[in-house]
Amino acid sequence: MSSSIQRIGVFTSGGDAPGMNAAIRAVVRTGIFHNKEVYGIMQGYEGMIEGDVVKLGARSVGNILQRGGTILKTARSEEFKTKEGRKKAYDELRKVGIDALIAIGGDGTFTGLHALYHEFKMPSLCIPGTIDNDIAGTDYTIGFDTATNTAVEAIDKIRDTALSHNRLFFIEVMGRNSGYIALYSGVAGGAGAIIIPESETSFDKVYDLLTAGEITNKRSNLVVIAEGSKIGGANEIARKVAERSSYFDIKVTILGHLQRGGSPTYFDRVLASRMGVAAVEGILAGETDAMVGIRDNKIVFNPFDAVMNRPHDIDHDMLRIAKILSI
Ligand code: F6P
Fold it and tell me: What is the DSSP letter of 134?
């Protein structure tokens, strides 16, 4: 593969996601396969500004495929949002001779890389890595499948105790402003109701749905709530239901950061491996200022402008399915 690029820098940025290590491994080994040098930049944009860079070999990414988190560590950098910060980062990259960048992260990561590309013409590609699955231009982001499986496992366990005690549980899952984890884990976990920001609802509607269960004698139930819910989080909704009705014995579980950890599923490992190979081969073939995505099981390259700050639309048929199956 002929390209003037000789040294590729790879880094992870934003919230960690299971499968990031598998993507790092794929980038490093594909780079070496094509006779390029690959450097790991530690702590995302923070490490780039500080020149915290390590050369990686095929063996230095051994035994990480199955590990959660990111061996390169990650951070959210305020300094990189400034032009001065980006200039410092660029100067540090040039000191080591890095002449192309591959980032693994979410929307904030893309914004930074897009700016760096426009200011310094550094060839750059992004791989979408976030549990939230909130990126336009790709059906799946790395980490979403693992995080959703973790949520389903938790929901199944909560169901056991909910049934035993005839309790109503409100389970809050992550996703920032996106309802993907809630919708998919809710359907897979058989939730009685799913509350996500993308679907218009009101507290009264949710209350009516739950109390309709009084008539059918449904005393135990599970409600899955996305953290970005527009009608309040699990604690708030639970409190309001308890204020209006003493019918239910109510409990709340907030799954939180445990959804970000753990060994990636086969799906995330394969996705990360495909995207990592595609990113290196793409950048060597001249793709730049773009995000690797997967659409209908095919690898695609989306220009940053087409995906940044765009919502990843929810399939509303999934909501309909959830509703039918929860009667
Ligand atoms: O973007 C991933 C995510 O886990 C979101 O689901 C959540 O809102 C956020 O990160 C939490 O961020 P932090 O780890 O900085 O608290």
Answer: -
pTM over the 0.90 mark: yes
> Which protein residue has the closest C-alpha to ligand 1 atom 13?
15
Q: Do domains 7-143+264-307 and 144-260 have the same CATH topology?
A: yes
Sequence ranges of the domains in the chain: 7-143+264-307, 144-260
- pLDDT higher than 70, residue 216: no
Written as six digits, the tokens of 28 are 């490093």
Q: Tens digit of pLDDT for each residue in 258-274?
A: 999 999 999 999 999 99
Nearest CA to ligand 1 atom 8: 176
Q: How far is the CA of 215 from the centre of ligand 1 (A)?
A: 39
User: 209 with 194: CB under 8 angstroms?
Assistant: no
Q: Which residues line ligand 1 (CB under 6 A)?
A: 15, 106, 130-132, 174-176, 227, 260
Residue 214 has pLDDT above 80, yes or no: no
pLDDT digit string (tens) for 93-146?
999 999 999 999 999 999 999 999 999 999 999 999 999 999 999 999 999 999
The pLDDT, as a whole number, for residue 212 is: 86
Residue type, 165: H
Fold of 144-260: Rossmann fold (3.40.50)
Q: Is the dihedral of CA 186, 198, 69, 307 positive or negative?
A: positive
State which ligand 1 atom lies nearest to the alpha carbon of 76.
15
The architecture CATH gives domain 7-143+264-307 = 3-Layer(aba) Sandwich (3.40)
DSSP code per residue over 72-132: T-----SGGGSHHHHHHHHHHHHHHT--EEEEEE-HHHHHHHHHHHHHH---EEEEEB-TT
Tokens of 231: 């009608």
